[in-house]
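Supplementary notes for students who missed Thursday's class. We covered one full example, reproduced here. Read the sequence, then the structure, then the short commentary at the end.
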Amino acid sequence: MTLERGSVKGFEHDRMVMLFSMMNGGTEVSCAISSSAMDDLERGVKAKPDQRDAQFLRLRDRIEQGASRKFEAREFEGAPPGIILRSLDFRG
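Structure (token representation):
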């Protein structure tokens, strides 16, 4: 089953990640993408913390495709299990 768009949770300054979710049917899948991965997707643009929400929205389709790939590969991390995207996930 392919994941569907969930909600945007916001930027977490302590971990430097944007939190969002995807939906697997009726089940919410917690996801995060590192700020460095978002910057790399925009070819090295270093967004300021107050610009992260807008940056995520610009890149949302590509980010969600990456989350779906990791979900299908069952590449979960953390407790409870979720998907964490890093720059490495968008190379190649």
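Commentary. The radius of gyration is 12 Å. The chain has a mean pLDDT of 94. If anything here is unclear, bring it to office hours.
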